[in-house]
Description:
Elements: H1 5-29, H2 33-38, H3 45-56, H4 60-72, H5 78-81, H6 83-101, H7 110-113, H8 116-154, H9 158-204, H10 212-217, H11 234-251, H12 263-270, H13 275-292, H14 294-307, H15 311-317, H16 330-336, H17 343-379, H18 385-407, H19 413-423, H20 428-433, H21 442-466, H22 478-497, H23 503-513, H24 521-524, H25 537-563, H26 566-588
Helix pairs in contact: 1-9, 1-17, 3-9, 3-12, 3-13, 3-17, 4-14, 4-16, 6-11, 6-13, 6-25, 8-9, 8-16, 8-17, 8-18, 9-14, 9-17, 9-18, 12-13, 13-25, 14-16, 17-18, 21-22, 25-26
Amino acid sequence: MNVTTIDWAIIGAFFVISLLIGLYTSKKAGSSAKEFFLSGRNMPWWLLGVSMVATTFSADTPNLVTDIVRKNGVAGNWAWWAFLLTGMLTVFVYAKLWRRSEVTTDLEFYELRYAGKGAAFLRAFRALYLGVFFNVVIMATVSLAAIKIGGVMLGLSPIQTLLIASIVTVLYSSLGGLKGVLLTDFFQFFIAMIGSFGAAYFIIDLPEIGSLNNLLTHENVAGKLDFLPDFSDPNAYIPLFLMPIAIQWWATWYPGAEPGGGGYIAQRMLSAKDEKNAIGATLFFNIAHYAMRPWPWILIALSSLIIFPNISDLQTAFPDIPADKLGDDLAYSAMLTYLPTGLIGIVLASLIAAVMSTLSTHLNWGSSYIVNDFYLRFMKPEASDKELVAVGRISTVVLMILSATLALALSSALDAFNILLQIGAGTGLIFILRWFWWRINAYTEISAMAISFVVAIFFEVINPKVEWIMIPENQAYLKLIYSVSITTVGWLLVTFFTAPEKDEVLLSFYRKVTPAAFGWKKVLDRYPGEKQVIGQLPKEIGLMAIGSVMIYSALFATGFFIYGNFLSGTIAAIIAIAGGIFVIKSWKTMN
């Protein structure tokens, strides 16, 4: 592929602007830990929403979608489309609760909701477990995508790619704090969108593809276009649709799609001006993430089935790519090598933006756990703001080094995605219920975390060797069912066999956050003078359902129009518009 001076100039300009933003925000970011990690709790919904979108548009996301489409067709995307339900639950139920909590990180929540050694252990352990272990795995998958892009499009070795991406990202992340990340995300979002839409438009017009109609009718593609899997085939509809839509979205924990909100999504809600801006940010994120972005990736993935129908074709075209990095996800980068001068520069800048926006968010988020929930809480409570910012900047560098090292050992983004889902299986329901059910305690969460991890290790590492539980290859989804069932039964037993939190802890949390009172009634009834907040939970769940229908309708309306089915597209578009009007009006009237 010929990357010209014009392309390099575009990429260079992108790097310079990103660094300038970091320098611009560095002075204010260094003034306090709260400014470094929460940007003063004064951010508007549109900036936070765009940042969420930019962060989740990681360079490994189009690779993941390509892997899914090539293996399971468009319907395979329900593996992540189902998480829209989680997202909309966060929008209308949990966004305002997080903002009311006024914690600095979502891990600080543990010592607001629970008390004693159990709460302290949860906060400390998860600060390292999520902030370091999980975070490093996620960043490694992003770095793996960068390696594949650098190898295919620029001919760079894995180490060269990681050095370039890491140095620039660490510089502006450690200098500018969250505000630097937010402003850079805003700039990178538009670069990423222009690049992905421009690439899809050009690739469809390649001589090898011919036109959109030729693409959709090609024998390699025609059988992979359905939005839903074949419901006459249990081996198709159970893993591709039923499992994600019935179990996965509420039962598993995955960064960016946590049931009840959490992680960097919670970090942005906590930095919002007020509850309405927290809701608006997450609403915009879900609309853009699920309705606006998928189709360019899907179209490029479908096109790759014509030019590179098999992995062997990718190996022939790119013989210098290491064997352990070859996979269906590589096809996305391979298709981008067909782009012309100028557009190559924009697309490369967009992919670099995708890498950097995700890495920078995870670096700031992970270091916030290390600083606020481990160093300040347990190691040096008297630490000054200056010292905390310094520790945050050092931890940013260390996290990047660890993730880059792990990336060199990974081979597939989809494999990492599945492993992370398995590790979090069965814990999601706790994150949904802990705001509304007084009986959940610290040991509920500790047991769920331990059981889900042990079960994941058993199914992913031990069972394939000893085969104590026979799982047919075409029924791999049984692992998720077993994991969710075992973990859920385990933490429920622990919950009922351990003492609840003390009333003063529960009442303090209830007064601070004011969730709907129905799940707290047993405690509140012991204190006749305590106000019982009725809340609007039924209305909020209704809005979640309407919002989900709205976004799915918008997603499928676009697909119908692309497929040339204008009647179905028009009907879906009308449903999406009607739902959008209702949801936006409801948001504007929320307190």
